[in-house]
UniProtKB/TrEMBL annotation:
Function: Iron-sulfur subunit of the cytochrome bc1 complex, an essential component of the respiratory electron transport chain required for ATP synthesis. The bc1 complex catalyzes the oxidation of menaquinol and the reduction of cytochrome c in the respiratory chain. The bc1 complex operates through a Q-cycle mechanism that couples electron transfer to generation of the proton gradient that drives ATP synthesis.
PANTHER family: CYTOCHROME B-C1 COMPLEX SUBUNIT RIESKE, MITOCHONDRIAL
Protein name in UniProt: Cytochrome bc1 complex Rieske iron-sulfur subunit
Record carries keyword Magnesium: no
MF annotations from Gene Ontology: 2 iron, 2 sulfur cluster binding; metal ion binding; monooxygenase activity; oxidoreductase activity, acting on paired donors, with incorporation or reduction of molecular oxygen
Segments forming domain Rieske: 262-363
Major location category of this protein: membrane
Localization of this protein: Cell membrane
Length: 381
């Protein structure tokens, strides 16, 4: 390739006496490297073009720093507690929490990358070299090789002029530092902040639309007929043995309120499967500890929200008493407190405690005693 043959290696005394330029030259000779071209990106120092390029690189690093600091500020002080849609203003700002975190962190990472790329393009020499490669017969690097490679790296740093560009170094350090602060703050905040820690928040993940809004309130089981304004309550005798019906919560205070009635059937965590087991099957039921009185006779009510990823468990097999989720084929045994028996789901479907009111209609005794649907970080069950 180059025709250069490695010369004799210097002694330790000669090696210690060599300067960096001598080591760079020696390293090239030992590695069989011929530098064909090593142009200086800025042969005339201090030009306006060079200053503009330096400011452009520094600007990207400054943007990275500002975005990183904005990420930390948003992580700590942006409204992060869950706010229901009933308060439009508060919910709007809460809904921006995750997008703001993603945008600020993404801008910080991208700005550092753009700054590094621009610096490499504008200030690092485009060296053209030819090298004859060798694996040194499988032996490790000798002391002379280690010293010469360090010299080469230091020389490359000097030729890239990073040492005399304090603006770029300061902004790069600021950008990386701000990003690093955000990277550290994010997992720490995850252990401290819980958007759903307010147990009284009826719209949080801990509760559903079946929660009583005030003491003594009656929450009926209502079937959806397709007409949001029609209120069709459920009596036990209306469901045959082995039958299933999807029901939603209803309060007398909502009667005639179109928006409230429509919201009740559209809220994602409200649908419940009301199942009436056949008498022979009901005798074989295994009840979950602490939920022995959640059923009413042969009637059992389970959430339709699958505990795997939240799909609707819309299918019920009367012969096998299996509740099926069509998304990923999880199956739950209705005779064993809706325990998963097949598929990826690992948690039983939450059971709604039900009974019959004095007027003969089925009602919910209270809300689910555990969060429904898939698991999440703050969930205890």
């Amino acid at each position: 390739m180059s025709g250069n043959e490695p010369g004799p290696r210097p002694s330790d005394e000669e090696l210690a006496a060599m300067g960096r330029d001598d080591l760079v030259k020696l390293g090239g000779q030992l590695d069989g490297v011929e530098i064909v071209d090593y142009p200086d990106p800025w042969p005339v120092k201090g030009t306006k073009a060079e200053k503009r390029a330096e400011r452009a690189v520094a600007l990207w690093f400054l943007v990275a720093a500002l975005a990183g600091l904005a990420f930390v500020v948003a992580l700590i002080w942006w409204p992060w507690r869950y706010e229901p849609r009933t308060d439009e203003s508060a919910h709007f700002w809460y809904s921006l929490y995750t997008p703001v975190l993603g945008i600020t962190l993404g801008v910080s990472v991208l700005a550092i990358a753009f700054g590094a790329l621009l610096y490499a393009k504008k200030f690092i020499p485009n060296e053209v070299a030819i090298q004859q490669r060798s694996d040194n017969m499988g032996e490790g690097s000798a002391e002379v090789d280690r010293k010469t490679i360090v010299a080469h790296l230091a020389d490359a740093g000097d030729r890239a002029t990073i040492g005399r560009r304090s603006m770029i170094k300061r902004t790069a350090g600021l950008g990386v530092g701000a990003l690093g602060l955000g990277v550290v703050a994010l997992p720490v905040a995850s252990f401290i902040k819980d958007p759903h820690d307010n147990a009284d928040n009826k719209d949080g993940l801990v509760h559903t639309g079946w929660q009583k809004q005030h003491p003594g309130e009656i929450v009926y089981l209502r079937r959806h007929t397709g007409d949001a304004n029609e209120v069709s309550l459920v009596r036990p005798e209306e469901i045959d043995a082995g039958g299933m019906e999807t029901v939603f919560p209803f309060r007398e205070s909502e009667r005639g309120d179109h928006e409230a009635l429509l919201h009740a059937v559209r809220r994602s965590d409200n649908p419940v499967m009301l199942i009436r087991l056949r008498p022979g099957d009901a005798a074989e039921v295994v009840k979950r500890k602490g939920q022995e009185d959640f059923n009413y006779g042969d009637f059992y009510a389970f959430t339709k929200i699958c505990s795997h990823v939240g799909c609707p468990t819309s299918l019920y097999e009367q012969q096998t008493n299996r509740i099926l989720c069509p998304c990923h084929q999880s199956q739950f045994d209705a005779l064993q407190y809706a325990k998963p028996v097949f598929g990826p789901a690992t948690r039983a479907l939450a059971q709604l405690p039900i009974t019959v009111h004095t007027d003969g209609y089925l009602i919910a005794r209270h809300d689910f005693i555990e969060p429904i649907g898939p698991g999440y970080w703050e969930r205890k069950s």
